Amino acid sequence: MSLVAPKSARRPLPGWVEIVILPLVNVALAFLVVGVIVHIIGVDSFQALKLLLVGALGSSEAIGYTLYYATNFIFTGLAVAIAFHAGLFNIGGEGQAYIGGLGCGLAVLAFDRYLPGPLLILLAVLAAAAFGAAWAAVPAWMQAWRGSHIVITTIMFNFVASALMVYLLSNVLRPQGSMSPQSRGFSEAASLPSMQAVLKSVGIAVAPSALNLAFALALLSAVAVWVFLWRTSWGYALRTMGHNAEAATYAGTNLRRMTMLAMCLSGALAAGVAVNELLGVHHRIVLDFPAGYGFAGIAVALMGRSHPFGIVLAALLFGALQQGGTELSFEIPAMTREMVVVIQGLVILFCGALAHLPRPWLQALVGRRS
Fold first, then answer.
1. What phi, psi does 194 have (nearest 5°)?
2. In a domain, 21, yes or no
3. How far is it, in rounded angstroms, from Cα 269 to Cα 129?
4. Suppose 268 and one of 129, 169, 205, 336 were both cysteines; which one would form an S-S bond, judging by CB atoms 3.0 to 4.6 Å apart?
5. Which residues contact 312 (CB under 8 A, 6 or more apart)?
6. Could you give the number of structural domains in the chain?
7. Helix (H, G, I), strand (E, B) or coil at 187
8. Angle CA 108–110–115, to nearest 5
9. Cα–Cα distance measured from residue 358 to residue 29, given in angstroms and rounded to the nearest whole number
10. CA nearest neighbour of 308 among 238, 239, 218, 234
11. What is the pLDDT of residue 369?
12. pLDDT, position 10
């Protein structure tokens, strides 16, 4: 038996099928398996799906929280994707977001009594990006100049970042007399405007939620990443390095410099989580605000095929699962929080490890239509 795949199996799919249709089919397969599992535990599958959709999209408040969660997934998905395109696997988004929050918070704590709101927020966003990039630059340098594997160093730096933040919030930044490991509250000038306030200013009334202008920043970041990767010479060189490092070297690309660039951009994007959480919701530096978004960004990037448009769509799905799953666990006691995690895990499984399962069927369908 020949082990060589037939030509039809190797034929690439059109871009719109690869980025949109294939992930949708994978999600449909995941929900089909979820329906079977939900039926086994004695819950009506269609009722559970209805509650999931209503919980995520059934009101302006639900949509607001769905988009709020999606904001974090967009930032971390873009962070993972830009490293993917360079042939790097950045698992350190969690730590980079954490240290980005440190930079964001320190900028606000230092200047919130002196600077006006817009300038203070701009400074905080830039500080978050700079701290996230600096934290990612260390493992990037270790790979580029010392040969350390980026996967090992980035995941270890997550634990270092967590331990550093615990120490700082418990012993340095905690206000005197407070028992909570967190900084003092930011001034009102450092608060990102909520989307409810922004929409109200143009005559649109929506229910209050955690959604804020960081969502617009996430969308702008997605556009900027697309422009950088597909419309600039640096982006072309970065993608060339990811496809074939030897060809990139032959073309004159400095691989060390490009490794540093890709990882610094990745760390800066991951720090967007801090902007959404600290400036938009908590208004102080708190522990564990990344809440696993850095790791979930890997699944978002895989599902979105590392394309900014696909990542936005995948982030919206994960945001809907986060919000709808929470409502589902409230309405149906049998659908515990662990079952919601199972649903998310199956989506990740079908969009990651089993991502190419429906590819032969789609190739046959596209070939027949052609």
1. -75, 155
2. no
3. 7
4. 129
5. 70, 74, 219, 222, 304
6. 1
7. coil
8. 70
9. 9
10. 218
11. 63
12. 46
User: Mean pLDDT over all residues of the chain?
Assistant: 88
List of E strands, 194-326: none
Single-letter amino acid, residue 341: V
Residue 138 within any structural domain of the chain: yes
Residue 364 above 90 pLDDT? Answer: no
Q: Give the integer Cα–Cα distance in Å for 270 and 278.
A: 14
Contact 281, 80 (CB under 8 A): no
Share of the chain above pLDDT 90, in %: 61
The answer to whether residue 218 is domain-embedded is yes
Look at 74-78, 131-135, 201-205, 331-335 and tell me which has the smallest mean pLDDT. Answer: 331-335
State which residues form the domain around 209: 27-362
User: With contact defined as beta carbons under 8 Å apart, do 221 and 74 qualify?
Assistant: yes
**Helical spans, DSSP H, in 86-116:** 93-111
Closest among 98, 102, 80, 100 to 266, alpha carbons compared: 80
Report pLDDT for 15: 67
pLDDT in tens, 333-348: 777 777 777 877 887 7
Q: Which two tokens stand for residue 57?
A: 């999209």
| Domain contains 244 | yes
**Would the pLDDT of 5 be above 90?**
no
Nearest to 140 by CA among 265, 224, 305, 226: 265
How far apart CA 333 and CA 328 sit, in angstroms, is 8
Does position 3 have pLDDT exceeding 50, yes or no? no
Q: Is the dihedral of CA 82, 164, 295, 102 positive or negative?
A: negative
**Residue 199: its pLDDT value, please?**
92
Task: Work out the number of other CB atoms within 10 angstroms of the CB of residue 369.
Answer: 6
Q: What is the CATH number of the domain that holds 326?
A: 1.10.3470
- Can you tell me the distance from the alpha carbon of 346 to that of 332, in angstroms, rounded to the nearest whole number? 20
Give strand pairing partners of 194.
Answer: 212
* Dihedral angle over CA of 182, 96, 280, 310, nearest 10: -150
Q: Is pLDDT above 90 for 44?
A: no
DSSP state of 283: S
Question: CB 104: neighbour CB atoms within 10 A?
Answer: 32
C-alpha–C-alpha distance, residues 139 and 89, integer Å: 11
Q: How many CB atoms lie within 10 A of CB 233?
A: 7
